[in-house]
Amino acid sequence: MHSRKPELEQRHISVWQSVFDATYTSSSAAGAVDDYAGWTDSGGRRQIPDPDMREWADDAAASVSALRPGRLLEVGCGTGLLLRRLAHDCRYVGTDLSAAALTRAAAASDATVEGLHQLPAHEIDSLGGGFDAVVLNSVVQYFPGLDYLRDVLHQAVEAVAGTGHVFVGDVRHVDLLDAQAAAELDAGEGVPLDPERLRHRVRAHRQGNELAVRPTVFEEIHPRVTNVRVRPKTIHPRTAMARFRYDVVLTVDGRPPQRAGTSRAWETIGSNEALRVLVEEFGSEARGAESLEITGIANANIRASAGTGSERGPAHRWAIGPRDLRQLVESHGLASELSWRSCLPDGSFDAVLHRGAEGVEIGARGSAETEDAWFTSAAPSTSPLDALRRVHTDFAGAPRPEV
Fold this sequence. Notes:
The protein is of the alpha/beta class. Helix content is 32%, strand content 21%. It has a 7-stranded mixed β-sheet. Strands 10-11-13-12 form a 4-stranded mixed β-sheet, covered by helices on one side. The chain has a two-stranded antiparallel sheet with strand order 6-15. α1 crosses α4 and α6 crosses α7. The radius of gyration is 21 Å and the shape is globular.
């Protein structure tokens, strides 16, 4: 592992700060209107439609609200997409690199905000702690490396007073980079994938300016963390954000989670109809097990990618997406906890079905042999971002992070 390089980290942070200031200064959105400036789908490089962005923001806010924070710190609050949705129900404190973003955040809600601070993520310890929840939503990809991420998460846990949570949203999944590159090439050209062109696209995809992280990185952040939940997105899978990113909930000083009562492997179920019957029967059992774990669920949102090492995708077997599974479970009056703790390049996931119990643990089944993190292409090439790529080259002689 490379040692921290503060000067290069500061250059990285300064470049992103200039990008954000320029983006939000030029944006026409104002006041209590959601500002989606700069939100482009990494596949088509097109502006993400407002309905998809609203669903994304509503989903993140609902996940944070479920943690019931009395006092909340959001690191990288941007223009206030979550502030508008959360500040009425808690004592809200926000930080961001960009002064322009904070100006917009201040006007984003009529709720009383405890404070907005222009701070980089690695200086949140200066706020003094005392929070029930710390939120980093869609900011990890802008960090300058893995050690920086670990340092920020350590500070976030320390900022939680007593039992609470750290929510890390919208994290780019390093084990799915190949599948994402294939999906973007396919969507962009609408023709069958050529293996050689795909391999070229994958190489280019891994030489960008945004950080992708393995879920296992979150497992040993701090001794106060008693549970780690790694959740695939359950919003409509129209965008790369919905299909290839995940959320993490770290429980701080909580009760140890309980294992699921019974378990079934996905391959033993056999069909969508058999899955529906299984869920229905589990929901109707008056004295059955309190929870049911299903492992190795083939992910319909992520297909096999020829020539990228991801051939184990669900191209030749039945599959279901996280959103559809959650809706099926809820239609039978049950709750579910979905998990991507198992790092596999086919994007398969696990789930525990339960009757509203909290603290159900989902273990990892195994992991792929890949790097813990990687910088990956995600944004249009502009002059500041070209400078950012030069910073990455200075880190290790190639555009990749500290691993």
